[in-house]
Amino acid sequence: MDLPTILAKITGVVLLIWTLFSIYKHFVLSKKEKIKTSKQNEGQSVSEQFLNTSLLYLWLAFMTVFSIGMIVNN
């Protein structure tokens, strides 16, 4: 393998690990945050919460597919 291919695979692995850690952190922190926000009623509106959550999930899905693509296709 040549150097650019190796660098692309390493970058893909780093991005995949970072994305998986972000997904794990989101689910762990969201459970703790639900408990916290239930005590403090300062939350977002329903539409704002829906849009933020859907944008986050789309971004995480894109980053997962992108990083796997960097690993597999190079």
Task: Please give a quick description of this structure.
This protein is an all-alpha fold and 74 residues long. It has helices at residues 3-39, 46-73.
What topology emerges from the helices and strands here?
Layout: H1 3-39, H2 46-73
Helix pairs in contact: 1-2
How far the N terminus sits from the C terminus, by CA atoms, comes to: 10 Å
Tell me the series of helices and strands, N- to C-terminal.
HH
Secondary-structure-derived class: mainly alpha
Round the Cα radius of gyration to an integer and report it: 17 Å
Strand content: under 5%
The overall pLDDT, averaged over residues, is 87
Indicate the overall shape: elongated
**Total beta strand runs:** 0
List keywords for this structure.
single chain; 74 residues; mainly alpha
What do these coordinates show?
This protein has two helices and no strands. It is mainly alpha-helical.
